[in-house]
Amino acid sequence: MAKSFAATPVAEAGAPPSPEEFAALARFRYTLRKFLAFSEQAAGELGMTAQWYQALLVIKTRGAEQPVSVGDLAEELLIKDHSAAELVSRLVEAKLVRRKVDPSDRRRSLLLMTPLADRGLAKLAAVHLERLREDSDAFLNVLDGNRDPKRQAR
């Protein structure tokens, strides 16, 4: 059961935020939500989920020299091990990832991307980078009180 908002302990952080700082936080969250919605839609257009895309990014960035285990993936995605195992099963079923027994610990599975995943990830990464470049001001200047997120809405 979730704790009530008032009962949740929060570390003391000093002076309360100014109205401008509250506005900056709201702009940041709006910009982030907008980008995540774009990301989800872009992944969906390729038949992936946003979580699949994030998992493939983790696997790709580690590379073949340092393959990712299911536990590593769970840690990187901030999810439980059993959730990562289910995610990997879906990625294997979609032919995006294959498991390989870890030669140094046969109880562990290492994750390798398939060529299909490599091509899909390259497309998704390209459109994400393009979008980030287009919206870089929204992220870089999030604490700038003069920016109105509605002006940057697509």
UniProtKB/TrEMBL annotation:
InterPro entries, A to Z: HTH_MarR-typ (IPR000835), MarR/SlyA-like (IPR039422), WH-like_DNA-bd_sf (IPR036388), WH_DNA-bd_sf (IPR036390)
Positions of the HTH marR-type domain: 18-154
Pfam families found in the cross-reference section: MarR_2 (PF12802)
SMART domains per record: HTH_MARR
Residue runs in coiled coils: none
Alphabetized Gene3D superfamilies for the sequence: Winged helix-like DNA-binding domain superfamily/Winged helix DNA-binding domain
Highest taxon of source: Bacteria
Protein name: MarR family transcriptional regulator
